[in-house]
Amino acid sequence: MCGIVGFLDKCRGTDRPVGQTILALLQALSCRGPDSAGVALFDTRDEWRVRVSVPGGHDLDAAAATLCELGVVVQRHYRNGVYDALLGSGADASTLEERIRHRLPGTEVICLGRRLNLFKQVGSPDQLEATYRISALCGSHGIGHTRLSTESRVDLSHSQPFWAHGVPDLATVHNGHITNYHKLRRRYEQKGYRFFTENDSEVIGVYLRDRLAAGLSLEDALSSSLDDFDGSFSYLAASGDRLAYVKDRFGFKPLMVAETDAFVAIATEEIALWKALGGDFVAREPAPGSLQVWPVPTTPVATAR
Amino acid sequence: LTFIIDCQGKSTREINRELRAAITAGQRDMRVLAPDARHNLGVALLEPVRVVFEGSVGYYCAGMMDGAHVEVRGSAGWGTAESMMGGTVVIDGNAGSGVAASIRGGTVVVRGDAAARAGVSMKGGTLLIGGGCGYMAGFMMQKGRIVVCGDAGDALADSMYEGVVFVGGKIASLGNDAVVEEPTAEDRAWLHDLLTTYNVPAPAALKKIVSGRKLWNFDKKELEVWKAAL
User: Fold this and answer.
1) pLDDT tens digit string along A229-270?
2) ∠ CA A241-A247-A249 to the nearest 5 degrees?
3) Who's near A224: CB < 8 A, 6+ residues apart?
């Protein structure tokens, strides 16, 4: 199973934070994935930031000091060992992840970018809300995931969304099973890419990173994934200025899309759209083998925050 | 007199229990408000009642039912009317994958489009689709009739044993052993009646697809091929 959701606020004229909508969509799909929950939200703060999870065993204050030495300015840390930090002047985004992992072994870089805000943990969407207050987060768009694990471990690292390591502001959520994962993983490991988990869904981000590095646009990279991935997948990809879905050629996994002048809403099941949004819209099930990319409008935020 | 059930704030189980209690109390005409795409609504209705869902429904709506008349004033999710024995289901919008799968009797009408695997393994009854349908419609059907007024997807009527499929639009591709035939005068009269009854606009012409019956028997000439393959 697993539930995936996506939301794009087209006019940003509403008072309702995007986080609240994404959370409501996700809560409606709690029963599809009780193991873990996560969201990737894109806000308009536009400053380089990184979120890391430092495993137990490290002294938390010492870890903060180490991060500081790497040019990372810790803004806050949660009791579960997750740090929010800004990249200070001395930090280099492209090599930061390796340097952090070298200095603080076992540390997971959850996300890195200028707009991406990624939260995930073991447990339900309600528990995610209790830890991170997702419902108060404003922004333009985002994606979310509830996980029912089938193959790999249930922990923070294996939960979704996945940040596409190495590509700032690119995140994915996936419902299904990429059956040629091991083959793809071998190929990409030979090319020097690093995998951080045993979760087959992680390969989507690695694949997109590789295709983008080869000069493809995000649209073309998503399109070629229809040929290169085997198995069942409905997946969403979101970057600072794009929201997209991709659906496998057999339509093995459900996905519903509702689009109005005001928003684009995507969810595994239509019931989530009605629970989270209500109102006047028509939900449609995209055709097997299809994809769509929505640009995020760059118009200024209508309401002052 | 119409009995009204409002789904707001209720679980699927509560809604279905209310439906059942109303039927037991003698109600024959029911409207279900704000179904909001909940799954498993109106499953296993066995009485000649009329149930109207005022909005979209989720998966398996009106499945395993016999003799009721169900209307959906919206779209329907996967597996709608699956395994129904008799009665009618009319969906105003689109239907998800596997609509009318394995039905044994009755009529299912989809006014919009149907997704993949519509009417697979049908064992009787009629599936009428006002729009187009996805891939493998009528796969392994054994009896019954499917009418697609719009375009049909790939592998239409693949490996069907018996039954018949009519298509008004383009066929992306025919499945194994599916053969196009000329509709008879009897077919045309039946189609006219069906389309008129459910007020579905008739396409200019309908192609008829039946089983070539080549897969009915094992062909001994292929024995060596099979031995090598196995």
Assistant:
1) 999 999 999 999 999 999 999 999 999 999 999 999 999 999
2) 145
3) A211, A216
Q: Is the dihedral of CA A99, A145, A26, A148 positive or negative?
A: negative
Res. A13: pLDDT tops 80: no
- CA–CA gap between residue B98 and residue B77 (Å, rounded): 9
Report the alpha-carbon distance of residue A149 to residue A133 in Å, rounded.
Answer: 24
Q: Tens digit of pLDDT for each residue in B100-158? A: 999 999 999 999 999 999 999 999 999 999 999 999 999 999 999 999 999 999 999 99
Asked if A275's CB is within 8 angstroms of B36's CB, the reply is: yes
Question: Alpha-carbon distance A259 to A62, whole Å?
Answer: 48
Contacts of A273 in chain B (CB under 8 A): 37
> Whole-angstrom Cα distance, residue A77 to residue A104?
16
Residue in chain B lying closest to A280 (CA)? B55
Cα–Cα distance measured from residue B31 to residue B1, given in angstroms and rounded to the nearest whole number: 10
Enter the pTM of the model.
0.93
Three-class SS state of B174: strand
Question: Strands, DSSP E only, in chain B?
Answer: 3-6, 29-33, 50-54, 66-72, 86-91, 107-110, 123-129, 143-148, 164-167, 178-181, 207-211
Q: Per-residue pLDDT averaged across A16-37, rounded?
A: 96
Cα distance between residue B65 and residue B82, in whole Å: 9
Distance CA A87, CA A3 (A): 33
Helix axes A18-28, A270-277, angle to 10 degrees: 140
Nearest residue in chain A measured CA to CA from B136: A250
CB contact under 8 A, A271 and B75: no
Q: What is the DSSP string of A56-85?
A: TTS-HHHHHHHHHHTTEEEEEE-TTSEEEE
Q: Do A254 and B78 touch (CB under 8 A)?
A: yes
Pairing of strands A141-147, A36-42: antiparallel
Residue A199, C-beta contacts closer than 8 angstroms, at least 6 positions apart: A151, A152, A158, A160, A162
B81 and B129 Cβ atoms separated by less than 8 Å: no
Q: How confident is the model at residue B184 (pLDDT cuts 50, 70, 90)?
A: very high
- How many residues are recorded in chain B? 230
- Whether B58 and chain A come into contact, CB under 8 Å, resolves to yes
Contact between A119 and A84 under an 8 Å Cβ cutoff? The reply is no
**Closest CA relative to residue B77, chosen from B54, B66, B93:** B93
**Which pLDDT band, with edges at 50, 70 and 90, does A278 fall under?**
confident
Q: What number of other Cβ atoms are within 10 A of residue B221's Cβ?
A: 7
